[in-house]
């Protein structure tokens, strides 16, 4: 992905905390100054960042790739950038753990001998490192190729780096394996084996199913299992083709395997998270169902007992005078006031708020304040009602509210604001 | 140009003190390093582009001892000058 100078400005501003304006001017000046200097033929070194040098390249003979004709590349100058140690180590983080290791036995494949000798050569490795690090040119990149005695000359080094660039480009499979580590080689070996096994398994299954299918087909097509079988066979058949070209696919598998390794962790995490979320939602639903059931049962009990009580009272006062009747009535009404003739209960849960209940019972969620007012003795802050709190849903006629009139809705909203105000003042 | 003169020139142009410039340089290397770690390419119209390249592991010979060495793979910063700059320098 390309990062533009503008994006760099934003990132720098974020990182340093300086204003975007300053960062923009700085970055502009930074790069311009370097370019200017180099344009005038002057090398420039920036501590902590790196150094830019102009290097003279002598003329050399080369072949024209299209015609195959010999020609001479004239001598010219080129610009070389050598990153500072800080920048280099920062960028090389994935490979920081590795060190150069001596190879004793040249006949063994390199990685095998390395495994054997890793322990033995710890001391020698340290020695070598020291030699390399404290060498004359330690400021620049670490010395690798050593046959030429003139390794210290800039020209050779830069030429060599140029060559490495080219050959690296050839050798590298089309991607930059920044995350890849030594196990890369092992993977290449493993994958063909895995594929082989999978292929043979599928082939075996395939054969079995073909035999079974032939007899089934003759009998009938309507049997679900046989059609299922056919489907299976087809899907298996197509997947059979995939792992077929083994040697080529192992390489591309390595590609995909590579990319997958990069994202495998994130994907696994994400799918695990999804599974947990689904289970949680299912659990919540079950809980809700349980609560609803419980509510219904309790409601029935309550209404049952209420009916009994009112019956008792009315029975008790058949012979009473009218005045007594009157006195009894209010009592009955008082008794039954907490639960009106048709008591409506509901529960506030994590998914059903006062607004949800209002919407359900009244048809408009703005009328929640009336439910709140009805139960304000048991409710605290309207936003913090404990899930499972049973509230009485009063009929709107009690407060004289018409859910269809916008004026009443506005009144309800005001009431809501008032309720909040009560708490926010605290 | 020396590192010091470079910082001086920038602080002059930006009208800020040298410490700020030094800090900004440090932060810039951090930011660029991070982007290069993510295998992104940083493109500057005036100067050129920076990208990270992987150097594969290889077998070399130690200069003084003459012993064979296995050098591990590493990631390096590669710089390509912008065409305008290349022309200037040629």
Structure description:
Chain A is built from 13 helices and 9 strands. Chain A has helices spanning 5-16, 20-39, 85-91, 110-117, 122-133, 154-171, 183-219, 224-241, 246-316, 322-336, 354-362, 368-374, 406-425; strands at 2-3, 44-46, 50-57, 60-63, 70-73, 76-83, 101-102, 345-348, 389-392. Chain A has a 3-stranded antiparallel beta sheet with strand order 2-3-6, with helices on both faces. Chain B has 90 residues and is of the alpha+beta class. Helices cover 43% and strands 31% of the residues of chain B. Chain B has a 3-stranded antiparallel beta sheet. A two-stranded antiparallel ribbon of chain B has the order 3-4. The chains are: A mainly alpha (426), B alpha+beta (90). Chains A and B meet through strand 1, helix 1, helix 2, strand 2 and strand 3 of A and helix 1, helix 2, strand 1, strand 2 and strand 3 of B.
Secondary structure layout:
The complex is a heterodimer of chains A (426) and B (90).
Chain A: E1 2-3, H1 5-16, H2 20-39, E2 44-46, E3 50-57, E4 60-63, E5 70-73, E6 76-83, H3 85-91, E7 101-102, H4 110-117, H5 122-133, H6 154-171, H7 183-219, H8 224-241, H9 246-316, H10 322-336, E8 345-348, H11 354-362, H12 368-374, E9 389-392, H13 406-425
Antiparallel strand pairs in A: 2-3, 3-6, 4-5, 8-9
Helix pairs in contact in A: 1-2, 7-8, 7-9, 11-12
Chain B: H1 3-14, H2 18-37, E1 41-44, E2 48-55, E3 58-61, E4 68-71, E5 74-81, H3 83-89
Antiparallel strand pairs in B: 1-2, 2-5, 3-4
Helix pairs in contact in B: 1-2
């Amino acid at each position: 992905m390309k990062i533009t100078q503008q994006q760099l400005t934003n990132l720098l501003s974020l990182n340093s905390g300086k204003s975007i304006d300053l960062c923009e001017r700085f970055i502009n000046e930074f790069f311009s100054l370097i370019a200017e200097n180099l344009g005038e033929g002057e090398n420039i070194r920036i501590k902590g960042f790196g150094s830019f040098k102009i290097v003279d390249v002598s003329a050399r003979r080369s072949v024209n790739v299209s015609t195959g004709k010999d020609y001479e590349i004239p001598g010219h100058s080129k610009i070389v950038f050598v990153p500072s140690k800080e920048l280099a180590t920062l960028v090389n983080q994935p490979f920081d753990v590795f060190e150069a290791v001596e190879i004793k036995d040249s006949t063994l494949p390199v990685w095998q001998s390395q495994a054997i000798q890793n322990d033995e050569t710890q001391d020698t490795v340290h020695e070598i490192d020291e030699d390399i690090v404290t060498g004359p040119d330690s400021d620049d990149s670490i010395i690798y190729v050593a046959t030429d005695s003139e390794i210290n000359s800039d020209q050779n080094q830069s030429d060599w780096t140029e060559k490495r660039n080219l050959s690296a480009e050839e050798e590298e499979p089309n991607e930059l394996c920044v995350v890849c580590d030594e196990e890369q080689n092992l993977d290449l070996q493993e994958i063909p084996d895995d594929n082989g096994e999978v292929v043979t398994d599928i082939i075996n299954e395939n054969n079995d199913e073909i035999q079974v299918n032939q007899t089934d087909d003759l009998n009938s097509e309507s049997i679900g299992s046989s059609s299922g079988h056919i489907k299976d066979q087809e899907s298996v058949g197509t997947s059979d083709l995939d792992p077929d070209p083994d040697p080529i696919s192992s390489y591309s598998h390595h590609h995909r395997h590579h990319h997958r390794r990069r994202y495998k962790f994130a994907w696994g995490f994400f799918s695990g998270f999804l599974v947990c979320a689904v289970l949680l939602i299912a659990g919540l639903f079950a809980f809700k169902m349980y609560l609803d059931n419980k509510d219904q049962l309790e409601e029935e009990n309550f209404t049952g007992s209420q009916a009994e009580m009112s019956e008792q009272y009315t029975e008790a006062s058949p012979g009473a005078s009218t005045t007594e009747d009157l006195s009894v009535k209010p009592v009955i009404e008082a008794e039954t006031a907490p639960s009106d003739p048709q008591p409506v209960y509901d529960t506030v849960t994590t998914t059903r708020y006062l607004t949800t209940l209002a919407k359900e019972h009244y048809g408009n969620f703005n009328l929640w304040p009336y439910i709140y007012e009805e139960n304000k003795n048991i409710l605290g802050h309207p936003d913090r009602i404990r899930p499972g709190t049973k509230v009485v849903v009063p009929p709107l006629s009690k407060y004289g509210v018409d859910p269809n009139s916008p004026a009443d809705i506005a009144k309800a909203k005001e009431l809501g604001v008032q309720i909040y105000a009560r708490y926010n003042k605290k | 140009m020396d590192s010091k003169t470079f910082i001086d020139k920038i602080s002059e142009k930006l009208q800020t003190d040298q410490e700020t410039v030094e800090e900004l340089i440090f932060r810039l290397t951090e930011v660029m390093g991070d982007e290069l770690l993510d295998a992104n390419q940083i493109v500057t119209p005036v100067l050129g582009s920076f990208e990270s390249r992987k150097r594969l592991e290889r077998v070399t010979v130690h200069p003084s001892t003459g012993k064979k060495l296995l050098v591990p793979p590493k990631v390096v910063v590669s710089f390509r000058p912008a065409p305008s700059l290349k022309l200037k320098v040629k």
